[in-house]
Amino acid sequence: MDIGNRLAKQRKKYGYTQKQLADKLNLSQQIISNIEREASAPDIHFLKATADLYKITIDELIGREAIYETKSSTEKQILDVVREMNDYEKELSLGLVNQIVQNRKKNKDKNR
Questions:
Q1: Domain extent for 102
Q2: CATH classification at residue 51
Q3: I need a labelling partner for 72 at 20 to 30 A (CA). Which of 22, 80, 81, 86 fits?
C-alpha cells in the first residue's frame, strides 16, 4: 500500500474527514487531498503533527509497525492503553509497574 492510501486509511480509522484533519493541522483540505492522492509528498512536519494527533509513531502512521510484530498480544494491548494515557497517567503506571517488578524480585529471592 502506498503512503497516500496509508495516510487516508489512518485518517478514516480515527474518524476524521479531510476537512477536519486539515483544520486540526492548520492546513487546507487541498493539501490533505494532494497528499492522499500522492499529488504531493508529505513533509516531516505533516507526518509528525499527524502522528502526534493520533498518538502514534510516524512509523505506525506510514505502516511500519515492527514494534507490534515482535510483541505478544498482551504487550500490544499494554502499548495501546499507554498510548491513550496522558503524561501523568504514564508516570503513575510506571510507578506501579516498578512496584510489581520489585515485589517479584523480593518473592524470587525468598524462594531461593
A1: 71-110
A2: 1.10.260.40
A3: 86
